[in-house]
UniProtKB/TrEMBL annotation:
GO terms for cellular component: plasma membrane. The chain crosses the membrane at residues 31-50, 56-73, 85-107, 113-134, 141-162, 168-186, 198-224. Belongs to the BI1 family. The keyword rRNA-binding does not apply. It is found in: Cell membrane. This is BAX inhibitor protein. It comes from Halochromatium glycolicum. Keywords: Cell membrane, Membrane, Transmembrane, Transmembrane helix. PANTHER family: BAX INHIBITOR-RELATED, MODULATOR OF FTSH PROTEASE YCCA. The keyword Membrane applies. It comes from the Bacteria. It is a multi-pass membrane protein.
Amino acid sequence: MANPNPFSNQYATTARAGSALETNKVLKNTYLLLAATLGFSAVTAMISMALAMPSWVYLVSVIGAMLLGMFVLPRAAQSAKGVGLIFVITGMLGFGLGSILSMYLALPNGPSIIATAFGGTALIFLGLSGYALTSKRDFSFLGGFLFAGMMVVVVAMIANIFLNMPALALAVSGAIILLMSGFILFDTSRIKSGAETNYIMATYGIYLAIFNIFISLLQILGIMGDE
């Protein structure tokens, strides 16, 4: 039977093409902004190291960045202000990271630990992002599991403040790497499917995953190096 409205198919095709173009634009902007924020974090980390900032700067920087990310960025991301704010947030995280890197560099095998953590983080991110972009699977189903996993990890982290068990710290770091790997798949899949249309928020989510993977790898390698 002939289509009574020959323009409907043309409209649907045009709409799909427009949606694909918009998704590709979000992907492109996300990865460009991600590269820029990672580079900026590296600069602020080097400044922090040059200033020999104490280790407590890391905690202050992380808390400040998380508060901005949770309560300010979601609103600012709807305008150009969000771009500036995400550089502030990632710059703070990089500055805090610098104090941690200084501690590791003071260890006999510190440079090797940092290099290994950096390489491992890069491999995890590139591998998972590439898989999420090329796979036909939709990883949005991971959302509930990732949220539940984060709750368990937070409880374990709080418990280990009092228990101070290296084995538990090692397990928590390993769990964080698995969870953040899941978030990379989840966030990338949401961009690919068009569910995430704000490249600033997409960048923030993926940046946090990369940051936490790197920190966790540092902790694992540091603990194993002490044994």
